[in-house]
Specification:
The chain has 404 residues and is of the alpha/beta class. The protein contains twelve helices and 22 strands. It starts with a strand and ends in a 12-residue tail after the last helix.
Length: 404
């Protein structure tokens, strides 16, 4: 039996579920299909990763009704310190007090819990968990997805939100620009002796960036930060094979003692790093969002935020089109979404890739040149303002849902 809704969203992760909630707030109904079990995704210890939520993304969460759920759980990022291997010449990004923070740090588990709780309460969302689409059809009058449990879901627009390995995107034949950085991100959380002062550190080493991201103190008052440490693929297996004591010794050396004594606060995990960018983000009755459309190096913490900008833009063009009597899968509606997102996606991804390559050049001379440039940025308020606006996600034409 078919259940007709406006959207059929394949992928119920952070981006897919945010899209469903944002759409529902505009009266746009959806099916959300996810092969994972929500209980597993939100279990303690399943995913120790944390995400930097920009100011614009925080506005989105507030505008779709998640403020009360999320406000107590995030740690403000009041400043960002950027340094080349802890040498002189660092940049300190710190907004004026009246401007608020540069963003907030959230455990991915907390984001999922808030999204899933809201989804269960939303009549406009039909949530199909532990299920996978085995057949997708896009015709002249609508779309359909047949699930592995036999259910058939129908709608006007199919949305691929399945992440980097999106089968819907690949089946539709989207062209991708992609390459492997031959690096892996080692991810964990640390307890540390000294408070972080709500400062995020981005320390660039030739082998890869080393990021410390502030988290809230735990229930016992212990200071805590998330760690994202990039290492070359050829060294990754050895790094993961190190004992916890040896790992902490290496981390402490990279931190140069800024937080004093450290301990592990979460299991160590490792993820490959690569780049991919879809030349187009729409096709006939199909739109890509989030990592299905673009995947980048985590160096600037913009991956999830870029996906949430996709959400805001897509919901706005859908709502505008439906007010004019157009259906969600209308080609005019999708063309507007593609025009809006193409430039922003390309610009952010190109900048992130350039920074990754620039700071990966070894040697004293490249380091000296980088530090000279960083010193210039530190002394130019207008340039610092530009970079802070980019970090906060508040530059360019923003969808209404991402505005304050």
């Amino acid at each position: 039996m078919s259940d007709q809704r406006d959207l059929v969203i394949l992928g119920g992760g952070l981006v897919g579920m945010t899209l469903a909630l944002a759409a529902a707030r505009q009266g746009i109904s959806s099916h959300v299909v996810d092969k994972a079990d929500p209980a597993e995704l939100t279990a303690e210890g399943f995913d120790g990763r944390a995400s930097a939520i920009s100011t614009a993304s925080w506005n989105l969460f507030c505008n779709i009704g998640l403020k009360d759920r999320l406000a107590p759980l995030g740690c403000p990022i009041d400043a960002i310190a950027v340094t080349d291997a802890m040498r002189p010449g660092r940049i300190d990004f710190r907004p004026e007090p009246h401007e608020g923070s540069l963003g907030r740090m959230y455990a991915n588990r907390d984001l999922r819990l808030a999204l899933f709780e809201a989804a269960r309460e939303e009549a406009g969302i039909a949530w199909h968990t532990c299920a996978e689409a085995v057949e997708r059809t896009r015709g002249p009058h609508g779309v359909a997805a047949r699930l592995d449990n036999g259910a058939e879901l129908t709608g006007s627009l199919l949305v691929a939100a399945e992440g980097r390995r999106s089968p819907t995107r690949d089946e539709a034949g989207f062209g991708l620009a992609k390459w492997d950085y031959r690096h892996r991100a080692q991810v964990t959380a640390l307890y540390h002796e000294k408070p972080h002062g709500n400062v995020a550190w981005e320390i660039f080493y030739p082998a890869g960036p080393f990021a410390l991201l502030p988290l809230l103190d735990d229930a016992e008052g212990r200071h805590c930060s998330a760690l994202v440490w990039t290492v070359a693929e050829k060294h990754a297996a050895g790094a993961m094979a190190m004992s916890d004591a040896a790992f902490l010794a290496e981390v402490s050396r990279c931190m140069a003692g800024i937080y004093g004594r450290i301990e592990l606060a979460a299991p160590r995990q490792s993820y490959p790093l690569n780049f991919h960018h879809a030349g187009h983000v729409v096709d006939h009755r199909l739109a890509l969002v989030g990592d299905a459309a673009h995947g980048m190096h985590p160096i600037a913490g913009q991956g999830l935020n870029l996906g949430l900008r996709d959400v805001g833009a897509l919901v706005e063009v859908l709502a505008d089109g439906m007010r004019l009597g157009l259906e969600p899968g209308d080609a005019q509606v999708l063309a507007r979404y593609e025009r809006w997102r193409s430039v922003d996606n390309f610009t952010v991804m190109a900048a992130t890739d350039a920074i990754t390559r620039l700071f990966g050049i070894p040697g004293r001379l490249p380091s000296a040149i980088r530090r000279l440039g960083m010193g210039a940025v530190q002394r130019l308020p207008a340039l610092k303002r530009y970079f802070m606006d980019e970090a906060r996600g508040m530059s360019g034409k923003l969808p209404a849902l991402l505005q304050g």
